[in-house]
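INFO batch 0412 | record 1 of 1 | parsing
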Amino acid sequence: MKNFIAFLLLTAAAFAQTRIQSPTRQVTQFGALEDRVFSSILHADAKGLGELLADDFALRTARSGGDTIGRDEYMKQRLNDHDLRSYQIRRIDVRDFGEISIVNFLYHQDAVSGGKDLSGDFFITDVWRMEAHRPLLRRPGHRHQHRPTPHRKGMSW
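INFO prediction complete | emitting tokens
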């Protein structure tokens, strides 16, 4: 009986772990797509960036006070007045919901935008949706600058 209970506990723990972890194939797939987004910005590639963004793409940031900008304004800002010198994407997590995938990751950039230094660490959540057999970035989520607060140890922003 003890062996059976131990088996059930181990099976339940293994099942819980597999449900939490993202499949490697999806992490690789969406990591490559996210890299294409930022590489397009780095190289001021309007065509490449435009192919990845859905028509209803939107960006909402804490820095802007929660204001939302659409696809055209985002492309204008990132391709004209944004000097992205380098970037790094880490710790990608993917949640697949059929035609929609939620992708979040830690992002670091060295950049100046609109004359302001926007270098730093960010937590990004993106929404990708399959349309006409290709994924398009919608990004209706939030981008938060990561700022550890000494008074709130253990919490992430």
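INFO post-check: DSSP finds four helices and eight strands in the chain.
INFO record closed
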